[in-house]
Design goal:
By secondary structure, the chain is an alpha+beta fold. Helices cover 44% and strands 18% of the residues. It is built from 9 helices and 13 strands.
């Protein structure tokens, strides 16, 4: 019997312990564990005829143990996990999320890695819990982020890597690498330093981020596949790319000057693109006009030459007639547009003739400003001209 139920003991009579008097409690006492075990043994002995060590009792006990052992093979795989079943330590199969079964221990065991979860690793920075701000703050890690470029400049690069376990490489992930997260981080930092070391600082700070991210991802995947790590690199994201803090102001001034230079070059190129086509168009127009005038002048010269040759042929056949014809045509061409006045200067006759009479001269009608030639007015029939004749 336990010492507390005995009437006396080494510390005297009553419910006392080694530290003096027992607790004074007026409530119900808790059940005794030894009494519960004794009652359970009695009930089990009543259910097993012939006692514990009879053949039927042993068979029932063995059957119960085998049932419990067999049921121990059921296991559940969560949504982010994959079940890797090992038979005597060898990978035999991979099971999907849900309720599954494997042969009980020690024949088969199961490992449950987070194979369907995308993990994130940050290089060059670390997240620290900040109770004052009720969140996390980012702390820079210079020994990871400072890198040397191909043109011997220093650049501060912070980036993150998104990775997960390959569905067909869970066994390699579990057995080929001892520290998966540390391996991925070391490979990521090494790949970024190699890519940055092959590039100049200017593209890194401006527009070459996508190219660098793609190069780092491909190099990481190639290295991890060479290790047989069973890791799939999904994405590399550059969070911050800046010069060192000591010279960042000078770099910003240089970037501003480069931006102004590019802007002025773009404006000059825009002006050139607007002016040069206009000048080329005007030059083409002048050339076409000159070509047209050239064709016209050549055609007229050829026509005049042909006409002259035709006239010459006629002149050779009949010189006198041709000469007279040329003379008449020339006089017609010269005197045709001119205003002409014809009068008789002889002695007039008739009732209207006589000396001293002023002839009528229509000056307004003889003016060359009129478009149509005016016919000179005829003087009266009996009016004498200055010379004594009539018109």
């Amino acid at each position: 019997m336990p010492w507390k139920n005995q009437g006396g003991g080494p510390w005297g009579s009553g419910p006392k312990g080694p530290w003096g008097s027992g607790p004074q409690s007026s409530g119900p006492r808790p059940p005794d564990l030894e009494d519960l075990l004794r009652r359970g043994q009695d009930r089990l002995q009543q259910l097993l005829p012939g006692g514990y060590f009879s053949s039927l009792g042993i068979a029932i006990a063995v059957l119960g143990a085998l049932t419990i052992w067999g049921l121990s093979g059921f296991f559940r795989v969560q949504s982010e996990e994959l079940g890797v079943v090992l038979r005597f330590g060898k990978h035999v199969r991979t099971v999907q999320p849900g309720l599954n079964y494997h042969l009980p221990y020690p024949i088969e065991t199961v490992l449950l890695p987070k194979a369907l979860r995308v993990s994130t690793i940050s290089i060059g920075m670390t997240l620290i819990n900040d109770p004052a701000r009720r969140g996390t703050t980012v702390r820079d890690v210079p020994e990871e982020s400072l890198m040397l470029t191909g043109d011997e400049n220093i650049v501060d690069v912070d980036f993150t890597v998104l990775w997960r376990i390959k569905p067909d490489g869970v066994g390699n992930f579990l057995f080929n690498i001892q520290n998966p997260e540390g391996t991925v981080k070391a490979v990521a930092e090494s790949a970024m330093r190699e890519v940055i070391g092959r590039s100049n600082i200017q593209p890194i700070l401006t527009g070459a981020r996508t190219t660098i991210e793609t190069g780092v991802q491909e190099l990481m995947q190639k290295t991890l596949d060479g290790y047989g790590a069973g890791v799939l690199v999904q994405q590399v994201q550059m969070q911050k790319v800046d010069p060192p803090q000591q010279v960042i102001d000078s770099f910003r001034d240089v970037q501003a000057a480069r931006a102004d230079l590019e802007r002025l070059q773009n404006e000059a190129q825009t002006y050139a693109n607007r002016v040069i086509p206009d000048a080329k168009g005007r030059a083409a127009q002048i050339i076409q006009a000159a070509e047209g005038y050239k064709g016209q002048a050549v055609a007229e010269a050829k026509g005049q030459s042909a006409r002259f040759l035709d006239v010459y042929e006629e002149y050779r056949k009949a010189p006198d007639v041709t000469r007279q014809r040329i003379y008449l045509e020339t006089m017609e061409r010269v005197l045709g547009p001119a205003e002409k006045l014809v009068y008789d200067s002889g002695t007039g006759s008739g009732a209207g003739g006589g000396q001293g009479i002023v002839p009528y001269l229509p000056l307004s009608e003889l003016s060359p400003r009129r478009t149509t030639p005016a016919t000179p007015a005829q003087p009266p029939q009996n009016q004498q001209t200055q010379g004594g004749g009539t018109r």
